[in-house]
């Protein structure tokens, strides 16, 4: 079941039930979770992949409080509310899994042109680790994936993030060399106090 403001791109996909819902509304994520549980009787997996970024070409001083609020709404609060609703059901069932789509901008490749986006994704990674610790003993796994640079116009286009950072810093290659992702923490068994936090880190493990 997939929730989106519009379902044009979801209609007709085999095995997908599209749900038109405004996930930015305070009760939007709860509506989606309720719809899924009412139709299928239970909820096993939640994937929080709503996200958006706007270029901040004037850097930190050109990024207002309102810009940060927008970024947090799109990249953090939707996932927070959906997770709260999903965990209520998963605890009842005694199992479940949540996957949050974060970003390497949260911890490894912060960019001045996306300062609000990186901060929001960092909050999502922190939330992921906290929920994983609390709900691991309930046999509920909470993880995040943190994709690296993606080949889109937003990042690699003529006016994308990489070009903007290169212009501001005078460095032609603002991106670091290729890195090999490794797990950022141990795996935990059901009932243990620990839990697997999110994503992967470049060439080293995260501090504990």
Distinctive features:
alpha/beta, Rossmann fold, three-stranded parallel β-sheet, two-stranded parallel ribbon, globular, disordered C terminus
Topology:
Layout: E1 2-4, E2 18-20, H1 28-40, E3 45-48, H2 65-93, E4 96-101, H3 115-135, E5 140-145, H4 153-156, H5 161-169, E6 181-183, E7 200-202
Parallel strand pairs: 1-2, 3-4, 4-5
Antiparallel strand pairs: 6-7
Helix pairs in contact: 1-2, 2-3
Question: How would you sum up this structure, described in words?
Answer:
Helix content is 37%, strand content 13%. The protein is of the alpha/beta class. It folds into two domains: 1-41, no CATH class; 44-202, Rossmann fold, CATH 3.40.50.720. The strands form three sheets. It has a three-stranded parallel sheet with strand order 3-4-5, with helices on one face. Strands 1-2 form a two-stranded parallel ribbon. Strands 6-7 form a two-stranded antiparallel ribbon. β3, α2 (65-93) and β4 form a beta-alpha-beta unit. α1 (28-40) runs parallel beside α2 (65-93) and α2 (65-93) runs parallel beside α3 (115-135). The chain is globular and about 55 Å long. It starts with a strand and ends in a 6-residue tail after the last strand. Residues 173-208 have low confidence and may be disordered.
